[in-house]
Design goal:
Order of helices and strands: HH
Shape: elongated
Distance between the termini: 107 Å
Strand content: under 5%
Oligomer: single chain
Structural class: mainly alpha
Length: 101
Amino acid sequence: MLQSTNHSMEVAHKKVVRLLEMKLGSLTEELGRVVSEYEHCQSEYESYKVRVHSVLKQKSKSPAETVSSFQMCSEEKVQMEKAIEALQTRMHELTDRKSVV
């Protein structure tokens, strides 16, 4: 009778251990998912912080800085347009040469 009781308890304990191991496994998987989600949220937050800082910095510029920045952009635009024209001319020249050959 004592041996039967010990065997029953041993079987019951093994069953509890298996259930606890299964629960540990599922909780470990869930922890991994939660940590991954946390890291993703943290990354999004950092990215958002950088964007907000940039926007606030842009808004805090004085009007003189904004005008100066606009003038620089206009000058760059003119230079870019000239470069585009030169490249288009060069492209036409090369196309003409190609058709001659």
